[in-house]
Amino acid sequence: MKILKYEVAINSSRENVWNVMIEPKTYKQWTKAFSPNSEYIGLWEQGEEMIFIDKDRGGTVAILDIVKPYELISATHIATLTAEMLRETKGPMTESWIGTKEIYRFIEKNAQTKIEVEIHTHENYVEMFDSAWPEALRDLKKLCE
Predict the structure, then answer these.
(1) Which of 38, 108, 117, 123 is 20 to 30 A from residue 132's alpha carbon, by CA?
(2) What pLDDT, on a 0 to 100 scale, did the predictor assign at position 56?
(3) Which residues fall within 8 angstroms of residue 37, CB to CB, at 6 or more apart?
(4) What are the CA-CA distances from residue 136 to residues 37, 52, 84, 93 (Å)?
């Protein structure tokens, strides 16, 4: 697994940044860098299963390992979804995706919030993440400020 790190400083409280990040309407806006019609199904609570989808393309299923509101989210991907919303756990692409971990830290200091994103993933996804994350974080910053 490769460990990738991205961060952005946002001139806003971590409560606001957290809320903008996970509110369904704004989530769709800042995650367009990953997929044009990104959305999620589920609750942002520890132990919950989250479905991250683009209804035209399929998606992924993750377990929220840790959720500490306004501080930390840690999720581990456990399956992929086809465009027909069928869960997959076998096949080369799916097997390289399963186990991908996403960790988000929200650190507030001097009326500014730094989001640190850490991704543990297969080398096949490095280029995609390196392309999408900087754009997504720029969009999130614009929405929050």
Answers:
(1) 108
(2) 83
(3) 28, 54, 55, 56, 57
(4) 13, 15, 26, 23
pLDDT for 55 beyond 90: no
* Alpha-carbon span 58 to 135, nearest angstrom: 21
Helix %, strand %, coil % of the chain (to 5): 30, 40, 25
Q: How many domains does the chain have?
A: 1
Alpha carbon 71 to its chain centroid, in Å, reads 15
Spatial distance between the Cα atoms of 101 and 63, rounded to a whole number of angstroms: 10
Using the structure block, give the residue that is written with the tokens 């509110």: 23
CATH number for the domain spanning 138: value is 3.30.530.20
> What is the mean predicted confidence (pLDDT) over 29-57?
94
The rounded distance, in Å, linking the Cα atoms of 19 and 122 is 29
User: In this predicted structure, what is the pLDDT of residue 144?
Assistant: 98
Handedness of CA 98, 58, 47, 70 (dihedral sign): positive
* 76 beta partners: 63, 101
Q: What is the pLDDT of residues 69-128, one digit of tens each?
A: 999 999 999 999 998 989 999 999 899 999 999 999 999 999 999 999 999 999 999 999
**Residue 98, domain extent:** 2-144
